[in-house]
Amino acid sequence: MEKVCENWPEKAFISGLVDAKYWTDFEANATAAAAQVYKVADYAAGEAKLKEVLKEYAPKEIIAVGGDENPALKGIYSRLSEDGTKVYTEKFDIAEHAPSADVGISTAEFGIGESGSLVVDNYSYEARVTSMLPFVNVVFVNANYMVENITSACQIIGKVFQKGYCGFVTGPSRTADIERVLSLGVHGPNKLIIIAVENEGGAK
C-alpha cells in the first residue's frame, strides 16, 4: 500500500513531540467526539477486542488495510477469514467491495491529545475508501504515538509530506447542514472505533 511516508516513526517523529503522556488527553477528547476508544496491551488483546466489536455488527463483508506493513494485522485478517467472514485486503478487491462492505479496518500513524484526532496516511485509494465508506471504521493505532496538539502534528507531517493525502479524523462523520440538526454518518462512517495498542513487539 503506497503511503506518504513508509516509516513514520523513523522518518517523521521528532524527539520530544511524540510521547505516551498525551494518551489521557487523546482518550478523553476522542471519547467526547463520539469515538469508542479501547486501549489494549498487545495485538492479541486487540484481536480479541476487534472480534468482540464485530459481534455487535455481524458484518458480512470487511475491507481492511495495513496488513502489508504490519504482520500482526495481516495475521488478524487471515484468522478473521478463517472464521468465515469475508475479509478483502487486496487493492482491487477493496475497490470492488467498498460500496457494500459493512466494516472497514484501517490504521493511523499517531493521535493528537488536544483534539482526540487520529492522523491518517491515506495516500492510497484503498486506504481512503476503507476509512470513509463503510458504516463502521475500526482504526488501530499505537497508544504511545501521541502528540500534544495540532501544531506538533503539523511539524511531524511537514518533515515528510511532499504529495499525497493525510487527514485528521475526529470522531465519526457528522453534519448539521440540514436545519442545524446533528446527524452522524452522512458523509462517512457512523461509528469510529479506536483500538490503541500499547506493545507492538512480538505480534504475529
Based on CA atoms alone, the radius of gyration comes out at: 16 Å
What do we call the CATH homologous superfamily? NagB/RpiA/CoA transferase-like
Helix content class: 25-40%
Query: What is the H/E string?
Result: HHEHEHEHEEEHEEHEEEE
CATH architecture: 3-Layer(aba) Sandwich
Strand content: 15-25%
- Tally of alpha and pi helices: 7
Write down the overall mean pLDDT. 92
Q: Which ranges are low-confidence, i.e. pLDDT below 50, for 5 or more consecutive residues?
A: 181-186
Number of strands: 12
Structural class: alpha/beta
The separation of the N and C termini measures 19 Å
Organism: Anaerovibrio lipolyticus
Domain LUD: 26-197
Protein name: FeS-binding protein
InterPro entries: FTHF_cligase-like_sf, LUD_dom, NagB/RpiA_transferase-like
Short description:
By secondary structure, the protein is of the alpha/beta class. The chain has helices spanning 8-11, 23-32, 43-57, 71-82, 91-97, 125-132, 150-160, and strands spanning 36-40, 61-64, 86-88, 103-107, 110-112, 117-121, 136-142, 146-147, 166-169, 174-175, 183-184, 191-197. The protein contains seven helices and twelve strands.
